[in-house]
Write a structure and sequence with these properties.
The protein has 383 residues and is an alpha/beta fold. It is built from 13 helices and eight strands. Strands 1-7-8-4-3-2 form a six-stranded parallel sheet, sandwiched between helices.
Length: 383
Amino acid sequence: MTAAPTSAAFGLDGAATCVRMISPNGTFEPNAAAEEFLPYLDRLSEADHRRFYRDMVVVRKFDTEAANLQRQGQLALWVPSHGQEAAQVGSAYATRPQDHVFPSYREHVVGMIRGLDVVDILRMLRGVTLGGWVPEEHGNFHLYTLVLASQTLHSTGYAMGMQLDGATATGNPETDQAVIVYYGDGASSQGDANEALVFAASYQTPQVFFLQNNHWAISVPVARQSRTPLYLRAGGFGMPGTQIDGNDVLASFAVTAKSMDDARAGHGPALIEALTYRVGAHTTADDPTKYRDPDELAYWVARDPIVRFRSYLQGRGIEQEFLDAVDEEAVDFAADTRKRALEITGPEQSVIFDNVYAEPHPLVAEQKAWLERYEASFDEGKN
């Protein structure tokens, strides 16, 4: 495979179109594209800055622990999020409690922020549950979607439902609802994603499409999928598109906050392209060394979102005790995750027949009875 060009091919460094608040070395240097979004940073307190950092560090440690669990046979699969923490944390904190979040399968920290127990993600990837959680009980964080781009249609339909229910664009920002959907550069090439954009634009849904461009759709570079930056596609569907430095948590927050505010107010959908990088493998079933250029990886590692934000906080005088405490918390969090993951047990076999239909169904009952007889026959043979 031919490696993709560095991000400079899409203008990450110094491009006027890419919104950036914090430079790669951690100094606050908003570029020209960031100016209209600067007022949204006024919403953030020092406590918010600390929370951003804490969540990025904790989820990376969790991510590493989960990958180790998979390598040790405790999970069927793991989907790393290393490198994409800033894009996810910033955008997640731009949502409000009444909003609905439709993830792909890599948004671990978004779920955590919305109140999801991340061990539920491990249960799903261990194969003991088909979904793992009820969205309404976890901050309206919907189920992971392993079928690429299908969540874009789900979210658009849900946003249309909000309109029909009169739950949005009432003029009350405290109750008006909106939807944010996460998907990747690979999913942007799927028909579902483009159909969702058509319907969202046609019906002016209260919705934000948050496209995490991590530069690789498994082994296919984004440069092979699109000859233009992905955010420009939004204009073709009749909605605004904004490109952000996805490794800048403040840029992610500010742009998403504006887009979500606009969506709740009835101004229609928007698309955000977050330029970031998948530092790890696509999943633990993938070996990126087979197709990626080591120089490209080094380029992005040097722009690590956690290192960048730590430098920013240190420039603002954050105490070392806080940084050390976060590191310790991350280790404890990962250890607790491992302990609880090892305690996961499989469900009763009969659960596969539950909830197939809303009401009891004779065919399902017959199949369940057959399986029970079949399993019992093995015990009979032992006697």
